[in-house]
Design a protein that fits this description.
By secondary structure, this protein is mainly alpha-helical. It has one domain. It is 64% helix and 0% strand. The longest helix has 22 residues. It is globular and about 50 Å long.
């Protein structure tokens, strides 16, 4: 959503138009929730390949934080996890996210996400203004 606004826009006017387009896309997803929302969390290389190429560490950090936010939100919203255990489950998830030996993806695999995510991720590309 943000690639056009932050990477492609050459002038302030183009960048502003890109921000406006990204905001319009975001709000359009909320018009009939959840039918217009993404079905999967697209990784940054799939939706912002130029940003990912220019700033791979920042993009990977963004993906990891996005994933962490989704996991914690799922735990908090889940009726299957008793309220008294939510903190414990969240901390266990945080431990796993910090574990450099679990669920590890190589830089090569991460960069290939644009191709491997398939059409689902590409459905959420932002159109140029």
């Amino acid at each position: 959503m943000f690639e056009w606004a932050l990477i492609e826009g050459r002038t302030p006017s183009e960048r502003n138009a890109g921000v406006d387009a990204a905001l319009a896309r975001f709000w359009s997803m909320l018009k009939d929730p959840p039918s217009r929302m993404p079905k999967v969390m697209p990784m940054t290389p799939a939706v912002a390949p130029k940003f990912s190429a220019r700033h791979p560490r920042a993009a990977a950090i963004f993906d990891n934080l996005h994933m962490m936010h989704d996991i914690i939100s799922d735990v908090l919203a889940s009726d299957a996890i008793p309220h008294a255990r939510k903190r414990e489950v969240i901390y266990a998830q945080l431990d796993e996210l910090r574990d450099s030996t679990t669920n590890v993806m190589s830089w090569k695999e991460w960069r290939e996400m644009e191709a491997t995510m398939g059409a689902e991720a590409h459905d959420h590309h932002e159109e140029q203004p």
